[in-house]
């Protein structure tokens, strides 16, 4: 500032050269001032950049994984660094919450246990979390109580890659950063029958509330990708899920015994159902008695040649109700909407609503199965019959379809209240001669092509009806997002 004061600015400003000198001196003063500030206090961190995102909660405190010794070279194990970071940041759970930032790089790690509420895990757009392929990095835990056993083996299960239980207000998000499950070894061991325990899922949150999973790319999960279970108030948004279409059980998003869930704007390519709605298995699910209800699925794009776009079941013994799906695109999937159940499941699937679905190249558009089998053990109750009722499909278009529908209820326990309206199905050149097969089902259709089966007779023009879709909003649609801004140092 002293340098600048030596110049008679009023006189200099009267000439073009004077104006030029004033500008040059001003710039010089600014540079000198900045250098002086940096030199005076070299302990102050240099501000590199800032970022912002939308979330259900913002945090008062933030740290980088590098602050805890993390190394993003793709080879160094960061398991201890992540656990140390989460343990230390947990002290802020009741003081505005904390965020753990994962910068650009490849971060190899075993299971990450989110032990703190009011916590955010944030991935930079060039950050890749690499899941360790070492089984010892995934502690073995008990089977889910509503399943009674593991799905891959009768014993327990490996902890999921990102795991949390009994949490409130937890966010896993980023700038479309990547979580790579490196599932090939797990898939190989599954096919060879070498697994003593059920494979880890990529993200699993249990017994928790107010959960956001958003703006991430999930690759090559060992098994299911996103599994909220026994939880409520869940948002899954902007997720891209990719796995080989032949990979075993790589379901996309599986809400399981959850209430008030919203899944939207997701793109899924997988070896199993893109969205699978569940609530427990046989006698274990019946005893646990926690349904999945108040579920919204919207703006989903799915590719899964051997499975369904949206599946309900087969583990649905705790019940499934009030499911709303809209604006769904399915390309080269085995089926559009599938309900899977069996004698011994008990439970129910009721009040399901699907509208505005576009499908290209399908084996079946609609598939309901009452003989799915696959029991947890031999102790299931053969008198536990599932109730399937109030299934509504409307405003759909499909092309290149092998068979319009395969609807198989249970003898003595028909699936009832089926309604299908304003649906046009273009059959493939080598389609089945009989486009609809129906047994033990009851309901109506209206404006459906090709002509449905007699058990779902198409209404006369003067009696044409539109199937139901609720107009009232669910609580999860009332969630308001905040704009969170952070300055990285």
UniProtKB/TrEMBL annotation:
Q: Where is the Rhamnogalacturonase A/B/Epimerase-like pectate lyase domain?
A: 64-111
Q: Does the keyword NADP apply?
A: no
- The membrane-spanning stretches of this chain are none
UniProt KW keywords = Cell wall, Glycosidase, Hydrolase, Secreted
Give the top-rank taxon of the lineage listed in the UniProt record for this protein.
Eukaryota
Provide the species name.
Cephalotus follicularis (Albany pitcher plant)
Q: Which family does it belong to?
A: Belongs to the glycosyl hydrolase 28 family.
The UniProt record lists the keyword Transport: no
Report the protein name in the record.
Glyco_hydro_28 domain-containing protein
Q: What is its main location?
A: secreted
**Where is it localised?**
Secreted, Cell wall
Give the GO biological process terms: carbohydrate metabolic process
**Annotated Gene Ontology MF terms?**
polygalacturonase activity
């Amino acid at each position: 500032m002293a340098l600048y004061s030596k110049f008679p600015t009023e006189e200099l400003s009267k000439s073009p050269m004077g104006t030029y000198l004033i500008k040059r001196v001003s710039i010089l003063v600014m540079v000198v001032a900045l250098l002086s500030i940096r030199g005076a206090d070299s302990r102050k961190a240099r501000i590199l950049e800032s970022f912002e995102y939308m979330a259900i909660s913002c945090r008062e405190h933030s740290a980088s994984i590098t602050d805890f010794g993390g190394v993003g070279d793709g080879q160094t194990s960061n398991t201890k660094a992540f656990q140390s970071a989460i343990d230390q940041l947990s002290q802020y759970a009741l003081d505005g919450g904390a965020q753990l930032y994962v910068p650009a790089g490849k971060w190899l790690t075993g299971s990450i246990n989110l032990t703190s509420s009011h916590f955010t895990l944030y991935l930079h757009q060039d950050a890749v979390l690499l899941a360790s392929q070492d089984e010892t990095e995934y502690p073995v835990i008990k089977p889910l109580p509503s399943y009674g056993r593991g799905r891959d083996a009768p014993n327990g299960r490996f902890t999921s890659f990102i795991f949390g239980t009994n949490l409130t207000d937890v966010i896993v998000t980023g700038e479309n950063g990547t979580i790579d499950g490196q599932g090939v070894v797990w898939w190989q061991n599954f096919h060879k029958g070498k697994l003593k325990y059920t494979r880890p899922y990529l993200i699993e949150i249990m017994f928790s509330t107010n959960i956001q999973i958003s703006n991430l790319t999930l690759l090559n999960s060992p098994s299911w990708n996103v599994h909220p279970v026994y939880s409520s108030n869940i948002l899954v948004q902007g997720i891209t899920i990719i796995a080989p279409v032949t990979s075993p059980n790589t379901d996309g998003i599986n809400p399981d015994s959850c209430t008030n869930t919203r899944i939207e704007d997701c793109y899924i390519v997988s070896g199993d159902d893109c969205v699978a709605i569940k609530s427990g298995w046989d006698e274990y699910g019946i005893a646990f008695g926690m349904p999945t209800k108040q579920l919204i699925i919207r703006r989903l794009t799915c590719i899964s040649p051997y499975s369904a776009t949206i599946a309900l079941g087969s583990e649905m013994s705790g019940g499934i109700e009030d499911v709303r799906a809209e604006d769904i695109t399915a390309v080269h999937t085995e089926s559009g909407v599938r309900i899977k159940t069996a004698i011994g499941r008990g439970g129910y699937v009721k009040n399901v609503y699907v509208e505005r679905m576009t499908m290209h190249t399908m084996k079946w558009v609609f598939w309901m199965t009452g003989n799915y089998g696959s029991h947890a053990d031999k102790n299931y109750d053969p008198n536990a019959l599932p109730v399937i009722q109030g299934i509504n499909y409307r405003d759909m278009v499909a092309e290149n379809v092998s068979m319009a529908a395969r609807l198989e209820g249970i003898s003595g326990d028909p699936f009832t209240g089926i309604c299908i309206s304003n649906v046009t199905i273009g059959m493939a050149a080598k389609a089945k001669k009989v486009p609809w097969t129906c047994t033990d089902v009851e309901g109506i259709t209206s404006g459906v092509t090709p002509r449905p089966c007699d058990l779902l007779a198409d209404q006369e023009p003067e009696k044409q009806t539109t199937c139901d879709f609720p107009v009232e909003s669910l609580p999860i649609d009332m969630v308001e997002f905040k704009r969170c801004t952070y300055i990285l140092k």
